Amino acid sequence: MNFDHHEALHAARDLGLRLQPSDVSHLDVSVHPPFTDLRTVQSVLEPDSVPVALGAQNCAIEDAGAFTGEVSPLMLAKLHVDYVIVGHSERRRLFGETDEVVRAKMRAVMRNAMTPICCVGESLDEREAGVTEDVLAGQVKAALDGTAAEAVAGVVIAYEPLWAIGSGLAATPEDAQHACRWIREVVAQCADADAARSVRIQYGGSVNEENAEAILRGPDVDGALVGGASLDVGMFLGIIRAASRSRQ
């Protein structure tokens, strides 16, 4: 919940001016402003052909109806939103979103031809108790339950350990790779080996210019879900370039 539409406008323009084609030749990049900024950011990205996709931070389960205060996934699709974050740890922790709600939102996003970025991750207590793999398996299986293998292949799953978000304490490259590899194994159990190879798995949690390249060199770490660092265009651009180097 950062940037009003004026601030978002300036950030999008700044990113568009500074981003070079070589920065994204091996990458897909998306930005996820608050709902009130989506149209403003779209009005910068599309006319200027900025190679950045538009994403949203959340959506409702239903396409329309008496759900005051909610934002329909159908409305997001009409704004040319490509990606929607689903089940972010803050949504789960602060707003009580259950695994069942996350699964319903996954289906709502896919029903409207957008790509969900499904967030999963363990708390510090769960990590210290040694149940990280159990937690991740439970969340991934719940989110993908009943989804056809070909649809699973097109989703994005973001591993965001709760203990790393906003703490400045990022997982080590080894931690990130281990968790992402495990998530890929769980996806294979839920769907099939082809889907597991195709699904994109991100790491999120205190990603910055200094640690991004090392984390993203993990063979099962396909990208980064960038939080606070994305609010500084220069820092975000540095992460994009670090990601590009990791793919070369």
Short description:
The protein has 248 residues and is of the alpha/beta class. The chain is 46% helix and 10% strand.
What labels describe this entry?
TIM Barrel, 7-stranded parallel beta sheet, 7 strands, globular
Structure description:
The protein is α/β, with parallel strands linked by helices. The chain has one domain: Alpha-Beta Barrel (TIM Barrel), CATH 3.20.20.70. Helices cover 46% and strands 10% of the residues. It has helices at 5-18, 38-45, 73-78, 89-95, 99-111, 124-128, 132-144, 149-152, 173-190, 193-198, 212-216, 233-246; strands spanning 30-31, 53-56, 83-86, 115-120, 156-159, 200-203, 223-224. Strands 1-2-3-4-5-6-7 form a seven-stranded parallel beta sheet. α2 links the parallel β1 (30-31) and β2 (53-56). α5 (99-111) crosses α7. The longest helix is centred in the C-terminal third of the chain and has 18 residues, at 173-190.
